[in-house]
Amino acid sequence: MPCCMEYNFREIEKKWQSFWATQQTFAAENKSNQPKYYVLDMFPYPSGAGLHVGHPLGYIASDIVARYKRHQGFNVLHPMGYDSFGLPAEQYAIQTGQHPAVTTEENINRYREQLDKIGFSFDWNREVRTSNPDYYKWTQWIFIQLFDSWYNKTTDKAEKLTTLIQHLETHGTEGLSAVCDEDTPAISAAVWRGFNEKEKADYLMRYRLAYLGEAYVNWCAALGTVLANDEVKDGVSERGGHPVERKLMKQWSMRITAYAGRLLEGLERIDWSDSLKESQRNWIGKSEGSSLTFTVKNSAHTIEVFTTRPDTIFGISFVALAPEHDLVKTLTTTEQSAAVDAYVQYATNRSERERQAEVEKVSGVFTGAYVTHPFTGADIPVWVADYVLAGYGTGAVMAVPGHDSRDHRFATHFGLPIIQVIEGADVAEAANEAKEGVMMASDFLNGLEVKASISRAIEAIEAKGLGYGKTNYRLRDAVFGRQRYWGEPIPIYYDAQGIAHALREDELPLVLPEVDKFLPTEDGEPPLARAAANWKYKGQFDYEWTTMPGWAGSSWYFLRYMDASNTNGFAATDAVNYWKQVDLYIGGSEHATGHLLYVRFWSKFLFDMGLIPADEPAQKLINQGMIQGTSALVYRVNGSNTIVSAGLRKQYETTAIHVDVNFTDNGVVDVNALRQWRDDFKDTEFVLEDGVLKCTHQVEKMSKRWYNVVTPDAICDQYGADTLRLYEMFLGPLEQSKPWNTNGISGVSNFLRRLWRLYVQHDQVIVSNDEPSAAELKTLHKAIKKITEDIDRFSFNTSVSTFMICVNELTELKCNKRAVLEPLLVLISPYAPHITEELWHLLGHAESISREPFPIFDPSKVTEDSVNYPVSFNGKTRLTIALPAGWSKEEIEKEVLSREDVQKYLNGGTPKKMIVVPGKIVNIVV
RNA sequence: GCCUCGGUGGUGAAAUGGUAUACACGAGGGACUUAAAAUCCCUUGGACUCACGUCCGUGCGGGUUCAAGUCCCGCCCGAGGUACCA
């Protein structure tokens, strides 16, 4: 008996995967007579836990589209690569001494093996790795372009620094409209020309798009590094519990704020989901209002605030400064200084996140100083409050408790006055934040509507020279330097005067140097300071020691795929002009305001430089939902090495700890596995419940960090790649998040075997060349219609159902006609490419199925003679009536009313109204 | 806190404002078999009812509409993001 006639997925999948690889079936050409289509996935970070089941979700979807587009005759670019710089490899290196390059390479190899098993149609000739010097040479090159550029607001685009210098030479800042540091002084051409080299460099730094500037960060002195808010818990580092403070530090940064307006505007032109666009809009946070400067009483100092509600200026009851504000120390009176110092100390230890999240915890302190109200001349107290963030606006607010809820909470807590300036809702209990109503108790604004009052107030403020109408963005410049080892070196060196210079193109790449340890130095310098003494520019000048963040390499990788091995540029102009932009980008929504803003920013910059033809990276974007993991939590008694079973945890003070979900079965933990897993559990005492240790489960992001990773390997081994592909699609809508489970997998596995049996039975191909029946053609064409619609709206889960229905019906009809079964294979092949290639081959084709034209829907094959009309009374369906298709409203109405069973529901009365939707429904209102 | 998304049978879920629960899983029953596997058939939202059938039902409370899972308002719960995880 020939073995090959069974559906043996192991052999079939191996065979076709190697066929595609050797035939280069999916290699894309940079020139073609066919239309182009670029389908991109967000490339993975190669984690030590391996590719998890969430990764393929998006990859399968994009692969279906890629294969579908090939069937439709497109020249498809569908590449894959690795975002291979990042923190986890570095932390692993710190723990084990293993070089991150080595771990990363191992992880990539594992990922590749896992990806290969799933049968993706990637063009591997174009693979990219961000940690590869051939790649990051161009990341560094783009950095240098940003360093050498400024943003001209007059032309509304980035320009080479030379045009700025020219302007300064001839006019100084006169007539210059540029995005620059807030505190940049205006200068004359004479002043500019009088600057020495260092002064010129410092002045230009205020304009560069990649610049060295000051930014607030969470500094952990003990670890010698800046931490993410995520890594700070209760003012101490999550790792090690060392103190962390908010600190203003010199940092390489990106002037993304220059593009705030265009990043907003560009959203109008791209086909991304409304929710994602909304997220980006909120992140950019455009708000229009006014700046306003207060004079400090008995002092030469002034405090500038930004407000979106200048209309409420007569409702000010205090001014609040962020604890980090420059003037806090200066303004504080002697009596208040102890209290203010203590408060600032407390506040700087809290992360920005905690400060915003814990609104119930109202805190602040009076500085003892007062400012003068610009219109009433009244004394306004100045407070320090940590709900005011240093990084937003000017780090100071005018507080109007009557019409801002945060101010209201603060005023209530400290007994400050609450002044109502808009008629209507009483503000004693809660602020009235509505931007509508008539002004009151507001002098010259009285009687005006809020909107008119805003512009009137701005005019008054401008007339007094105290401020001006201003657009403010919540978006902040992006800090770009990291005190880390495993990232791209920033291609900058400092000369004897401390002036920063970029490397020349022919000096790139600046290769990441070897170091003895992956930790900061004893002096708190970044790891690159450990590089050999000769790691210097021209042997004498220090390089920049910080490295680029994870998002640097991912901000332009889509361009590298267009021409991945180019050594003369990031990609050839021809290639970039041919592929233009990504047609379809699929990736997780967790990147909504990170990567997806940065990549748009770099695209707009490269577009401004004339280097690429499109200023948006991707025309269409789909956010796949996250496949979540089910984490296992055990409960450790605080201050001990005892773990108690979950059911007993209420009797103790405990902390939940994540343990590897693979050691648990139905809520029961394998204690021995746990002991062996990590040293700190070796001597743990376990308090059992019914003889076992129980855990609880929590659904959350699948991540190595939570020990809840499930890889696709086991599914591939047990059921095969085609089953995995169909199953992941069958789980639910692509865009929806869902926890991973394998409960329904046998359903799709059964489906594939039923499909196989349509073609092969008892080791025989049973397909005949007979003419198919009308019923068989109807089944086929119903499916063609549905699948085409489904792919076009990215509804892959319903496609799988459609395949099942179609195969069930054909099985029922005992259909074995080639004219039906061949198109069916093409229809399914994007989803389940291996089994369809094999059956295609068994039907006698020598060529791959992958370029076969996609079946075309023929409406004449599915016409119905009659329609089953649901008849409802007041919206409740009572019966159905079959009527000829094509009947008019009137005909339907007449016929329905003539029916006896309809009359029964009417009870002799006449309907008040009848709604007839031909082809759909009849509703009778009684 | 703020921003975004989600909540429908025992489970994953389907449903251009138009018959709620398609397609699967699971469960129960049956056929075939010495048996098992495989395959096939039937039942499967809830309550009441011998039955015909009736009523209820898409997180909760309101609203718009001839008609609401779908649109609007107010809540509750879960997930993701919150600027140095990727």
Question: How does this structure look, described?
Answer:
The protein has 926 residues and is an alpha+beta fold. Helices cover 34% and strands 19% of the residues. The protein contains 29 helices and 37 strands. The strands form ten sheets. Strands 11, 12, 13, 14, 15, 16 and 17 form a seven-stranded mixed β-sheet that branches. Helix 22 crosses helix 23 and helix 22 (721-730) crosses helix 25. It is globular, with a radius of gyration of 33 Å. It binds one RNA strand of 86 nucleotides through strand 7, helix 10, helix 13, strand 18 and strand 30.
CATH topology of the largest domain, by name, is Rossmann fold
Q: How many extended strands? A: 37
| Spatial separation of the terminal alpha carbons | 70 Å
Q: Helical region count?
A: 29
Report the structural category.
alpha+beta
How many domain units? 6
Low-confidence stretches: none
Name the overall outline.
globular
The biggest sheet amounts to: 7 strands, mixed
The fraction of residues assigned to DSSP E strands is: 15-25%
**What percent of the residues sit in helical stretches (DSSP H or I)?**
25-40%
What would the average pLDDT be, to the nearest integer?
Answer: 92
CATH architecture of the largest domain: 3-Layer(aba) Sandwich
The CATH homology group name of the largest domain = HUPs
